[in-house]
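#lab-general

N.A. 3:47 PM
ok so I finally got the sequence cleaned up, no stray characters, all 206 residues accounted for. can someone with queue access submit it? mine expired

B.Y. 3:52 PM
send it over

N.A. 3:53 PM
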Amino acid sequence: MRKAPDGLYLKLDKFLRSAERTRSRVEKLTILGHLSRKDAEIVYSALFLSIFTRFETLLEELFFGVLVGRIDGRPINASPRIKVASDQIAREIVHQKKDYLDWLPFNRTEDRAVAFLRGGRPFTALDDGDRSRLKIMLVIRHSIAHRGRHAQEQFREKVLGSLPLTPRERSPAGFLRSQYRISPPQTRLELFSQQVRAIALKLTRI
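B.Y. 4:20 PM
back already:
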């Protein structure tokens, strides 16, 4: 029996809610002095990487689910260009002897979708704003995972720019913990989580 695509969204949404509860607890403990700012920033970085990874997983599961017919593509106007008998065969065809597939930058997912799914749907449904947000998140992801000069320069150039931030907030972790808005209060980690949720919702079209 084929599954509805919204199951993938709901699984991601459940994780995002759990991540937000963790972030909120850490923030309260930091304010009370039970955690240092450095400890809080480590958690913020870990949560961001986890959110990023979970979103990549959604992209992969949605793509292969539509390709092999495990996910019902009718609600999202998606269907495969070729008939594939199983997940194993699908992965052999798509991987082309590669051990691992990159789903971000998002253009890699789009190119793959155009090659194997009619019209590249649902992945071609994202607009330029969505693509821009994913690019920013990818730069932040690299700046956390790679401490090299290039990753840090990209972070400063493409993410920080001329934003009015304190010196501590100009690090990747400090940036995630910084306030995006005051009323209602929202950190930039919360903002990115919100954006990931919105993009996932668009892809699965609940």
